[in-house]
């Protein structure tokens, strides 16, 4: 598999903040990689290094084998940032033509508009678009130059359920047609819908890089909830992957809830309101990032 983008021992600081801490990551041709992590984990910083917008303080970043800060390396890169400023008085079709004009081999405006559900909007000024329509246009623009690699930073933020699904379908079709994609998201549903490989980032470090299935298996797929006056003693019990406490009780991610409950009873830790159920993706992901923080 040809490597399209690679970070090798990359560290990036902002003053005292260590935004990326010794990150290794390689993305190959044909991959659709989901980058998952809480606010401030370092996802956007990672994408900005791949776009050549920032330089690493240590380590190397390669894009199509070159330095991403050389414009030539970025010819086959498409991006949608978290927020896009569109010139309000230009029409949708004009914006697509303007961005497309920068690429030697571009997708025709009508074809791109059709793919991303913008056909009816081509003559509308971008200032008159709804938030969801603007978002669709921003994502579409990442694909206009027939990129080999596309970076999508939270592509469906602000979209309703239908809009999100329609955009996922378009992204999947572009992937099937040959584009490799790195997508960041806060929505596990989005990562699940799009990505086969999941890279979890927490506090600037890669804490998991595997198939979605394998990541879930690692974090424990059962979830126990209870109330106790002695929450600190719970973490020492066997099979506890992670704990999270709030004012209503303690939640624990565990691998084997039967074994956990047997040990809980044997430990003599007082508890009430015991509940056991399968973990949602959201909980599994939180457990993983909290464990890394611990
Ligand atoms: N220009 C900057 N100046 C100072 N600190 C920054 C700058 N950019 C990012 N940071 C800090 O670096 C860390 C990583 O930020 P980054 O935006 O990469 O996270 P993220 O995972 O993309 O978060 P989010 O999901 O909220 O977009 C954060 O602590 C952030 O505050």
UniProtKB/TrEMBL annotation:
Q: How does it sit in the membrane?
A: Peripheral membrane protein
Q: Where is the ABC transporter domain?
A: 5-228
* GO process terms (BP): response to antibiotic
Alphabetical keyword list: Antibiotic resistance, ATP-binding, Nucleotide-binding, Transport
Query: Where is the major localization of this protein?
Result: membrane
Please verify whether the record's keywords include Zinc.
no
Q: Which InterPro entries match?
A: AAA+_ATPase, ABC_transporter-like_ATP-bd, ABC_transporter-like_CS, ABC_transporter_ATP-binding, P-loop_NTPase
Annotated compartments: Cell membrane
A single GO cellular-component term from the record reads: plasma membrane
Q: Which Pfam families match?
A: ABC_tran (PF00005)
Q: What GO molecular function annotation could you give as one example from this UniProt entry?
A: ATP binding
Q: Does the keyword Nucleotide-binding apply?
A: yes
This protein is called ABC transporter ATP-binding protein
What is the originating organism of this protein? Answer: Protaetiibacter intestinalis
């Amino acid at each position: 598999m040809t490597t399209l983008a690679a970070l090798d021992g990359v560290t990036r600081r902002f003053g005292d903040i260590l935004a990326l801490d010794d990150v290794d990551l390689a993305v190959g041709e044909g991959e659709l990689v989901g980058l998952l992590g809480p606010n401030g984990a370092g996802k956007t910083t990672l994408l900005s290094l791949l776009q050549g917008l920032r330089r690493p303080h240590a380590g190397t970043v390669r894009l199509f084998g070159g330095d991403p800060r050389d414009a030539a390396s970025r010819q086959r890169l498409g991006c949608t940032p978290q927020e896009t400023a569109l010139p309000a008085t230009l029409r949708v079709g004009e914006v697509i033509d303007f961005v497309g004009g920068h690429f030697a081999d571009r997708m025709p405006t009508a074809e791109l508009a059709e793919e991303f559900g913008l056909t009816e909007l081509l003559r509308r000024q971008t200032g008159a678009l709804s938030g969801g329509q603007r978002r669709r246009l921003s994502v579409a623009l990442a694909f206009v130059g027939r990129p080999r690699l596309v970076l999508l930073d939270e592509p469906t933020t602000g979209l309703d359920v239908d809009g999100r699904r329609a955009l996922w379908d378009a992204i999947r079709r572009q992937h099937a047609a040959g584009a490799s994609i790195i997508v960041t998201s806060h929505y596990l549903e989005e990562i699940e819908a799009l990505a086969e490989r999941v890279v979890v980032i927490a506090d600037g470090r890669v804490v998991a890089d595997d198939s979605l299935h394998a990541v879930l298996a690692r974090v424990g797929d059962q979830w126990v909830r209870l109330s106790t006056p002695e929450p600190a003693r719970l973490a020492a019990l066997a099979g506890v992957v992670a704990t999270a406490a709030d004012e209503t009780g303690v939640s624990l991610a565990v691998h084997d809830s039967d074994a956990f409950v047997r040990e809980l009873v044997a430990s003599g830790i007082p508890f009430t309101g015991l509940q056991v159920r399968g973990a949602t993706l959201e909980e599994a992901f939180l457990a993983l990032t909290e464990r890394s923080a611990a």
